[in-house]
Amino acid sequence: MGLKDENNKAEESSEDPKRQGTLSRKNSHSSLCPTEDDEEDEDKKLELGPMIALKEQFEKDKDDESLMRWKEQLLGKVDLEEVGETPDPVVKILNLTIRSSDREDMVLTVPEDGKPTSKGPWFTLKEGSKYTLVFTFRVTNNIVSGLRYSNSVWKTGIKVYGRKEMLGTFSPQAEPYTHVMFEESTPSGMLVRGSYSVKSKFVDDDDKCYLENNYTFDIRKNWL
Question: Where is the composition biased (Polar residues) (predicted)?
């Protein structure tokens, strides 16, 4: 989900006037279109060996102090209480917070199945406002590598926006992680008001999907 960046309005209108009123944001390195080199790299992915449970890796080398220190430097702080016997990481998206200077933070609990129970919009954004998305999530069992977020936004059946953002690599721990997205802004005007549908995903380097979140939101003249 993302909305028009005011810094780009003049440039966008001069290039293509039809783009006014669409959803957009500042480009980040992770959201730029892939180059031919990037596509070639994807075709040349390394064939890795079988994944080993993190607890097993630590247990077999626990008597080698130098090797254990090296692993701690490589893997970071790992809470062994949050490590399971199986090699697959577990990632649970807990909350979505919407921050805006115009109002108090909106904290939304993310359902495990990714489908909000409310029949109406999950939330409402004010037109012409700036906001930031903040995700809170927990990682257990094993290290998750290359966790990334992607979403697509539609209005009246037409795709108006899409984005991808790398969150990073995370070790298991009891305390939740928090990731703050780039600040975005909603467009303004009568034509952009209304309901939008969103499909978002959290996947890792192995393309394992931890959550597919489908919901609707509204853009209105004022906050509710």
Answer: 21-33
